[in-house]
Amino acid sequence: MQPDTFVAADTAHYIDQFAQLDKGLPGVDVAWFDDQRKKYLARFSKIGFPTQRDEDWRYTPLRLITSKNFNVVAKPDCNVDLTPFKIPALDSYQIVFVDGHLHQKQSTLDLDKGITVRSLAEVLTNTPDLVEKYFGSVVENDSHGFTALNGALNKDGVVIKIEPGVQIEKPIELIFLSQTEMAISQPRNLIIVGKNSKAQFIDRYISNSTAHTLTNSTTEIIVEQRAEIDYYIIQTQSSSAYQVCGVWVKQAAGSRFSCRTITLGGGLVRNDLRVDLNGPEAHCDMLGVYSLSGKQHVDNHTTMIHQAENCTSNELYKGVLEQRSRAVFHGRIKVAAGAQKTDAQQTNNTLLLSRDAEIDTKPQLEIYADDVKCSHGATIGQLNEDSLFYLRTRGIDEADARTLLTYAFVNEVLNQIDIEPLRDALEKTLSSQLIHET
Amino acid sequence: MLTIKNLHVSVEGKSILNGINLEVGAGEVHAIMGPNGSGKSTLANALAGRDNHEVTSGSVQYRGQNLLEMAPEIRAREGLFLAFQYPVEIPGVTNLYLLKASINAILKHRGEEELDAVTFLKLIKEKAALVEMKQELLYRAVNEGFSGGEKKRNEILQMALLEPYLSVLDETDSGLDIDALKIVAHGINTLRSKDRAMIVVTHYQRLLDYIVPDFVHVLAEGRIIRSGDKSLALELENKGYSWIENAA
Questions:
Q1: What gap in Å lies between CA A265 and CA A272, rounded to an integer?
Q2: Quick one: how far is CA A254 from the chain centroid?
Q3: Domains assigned to chain B
Q4: Partner B, chain A 316-345, Cβ-Cβ below 8 Å
Q5: Fewest CB atoms within 10 Å of the CB: A101, A237, A311, A410?
């Protein structure tokens, strides 16, 4: 196949969708927004989808996505029962998107004073000025084709603004459900957390079990001075669902951003998580868990940019791969010239439970300052035979011992989740997966 | 309780045990002594059912059953316990969780009711006191960051909880100072009874001052070359292993 014709063929469908939808897309009357959209479209037309010749996509074949023509859903079916997806005992503010559209009835938009939660489409209609200075200020504009496609074809998303000094008691739970066969959802989200504020977010990506869907999201997060954020990305879609998830974060001085990316499902999942530590004494945790089986594939691409002095970052991704599943971990840490006293740690550990499972792990350090503490490490292994024997001599049967050890391996990350109902639900999902597979 | 006949065991293709014969009756404590490399630990591990310990010939009867046909977990549930020479660290699994899973697996196997959390906690605290183990160690990951002495105490704690019929103690004294040794020995002695038996594997006579054996066997090159009572251990201590190896 000729590379060029390949690119041209699979972009045409989406450019065509844009032509059909153009006037129906939100923000069409907002000059600056429409201008951005057109720029994104031009970029997408030019670069198309990434291919494996691109170093950043080398281990992630995109055939599952690029061989299909996904369609923007004009009007979603909102007669959906979300009960099976509910996390038991979790008390949260829920905002629900179905096939990329806000589900008004299932969403709580009217929160406490100091917290604004609105749909992007509505903001663009009524008060576009509110988001103008933030929108597109965090995401890398020269990012890959999926980011460009989202910029061009997004239909909606959530805008959350938290005023300075506000502490939100309950987590804000963003549920993105993909349910229609061949639907593409492209949420475009913007989160601004003001100085000294504190909030928890849970992004959940779920899907109907049989539908082939593509979710291509872009979320920009601005963390102002000394704000503290816990951010969860929980991916439990079915194997027929594909996802490209971009989260772009800018942290100001003294802020803390803790991200946990938990991937327990999905046919093909690509996560781009980039955090810029822009002010001194900011801290970022990037934790991740992946547990896959069958032919599932997850690609975690993380970028930690230390721009300022005295910042710390800690990254730990742990995964368990069964059957023919594959994972990619590409963790980049960049320490800019002025970012002295940086402390950056990165670790990726993977258990391969079958001969056919595969992990490609690539740590990458770029350091331009001289007074820094940086480390990275990766391990790939099987279950420890001595530990297995030890547990069995204590009366625990082999299958249970394997499950227990596997579970214990990723528990190092899971037990750091301090929203108890969420942790319980994830532990339950994970253990049932592991028991099922052994 | 246990009858070992002409047991041959190879590890990774290398023959380590070359015809062990041993009869252990209920209520008895047998010490297995021998120089390094004589096969003491191999015997202990083979009895517990370690995968890579291949039995090439011989038989082992345990409480009327063929022990060699049982998986390690079945052996454990049938009341055989191995106290490890090097207890394994298991990050991510708390000690308490393992102890509870273990006792309940055994109770279930016997058709008895599993322990609820409250009963279990009361019981385990009692047993922890017996081996003078700090309670905080119950809540930590299994053996992770434990000192050598704490690991060995943890083994005896498990043994005290599970109340096995046959305990095989593999160099439980190694790496212990005299105070820890006394505590561990006390824990072991508490479990001595007419229904239970023990095989105490050790390199040194020291442990046998505290756990007085009924029989002492000397192992060399994978065979028992001499058996006797506790005085044999003292004689070995005085004259060294070369005495008996030369005599054999």
A1: 17
A2: 24
A3: 2-247 (3.40.50.300)
A4: none
A5: A101
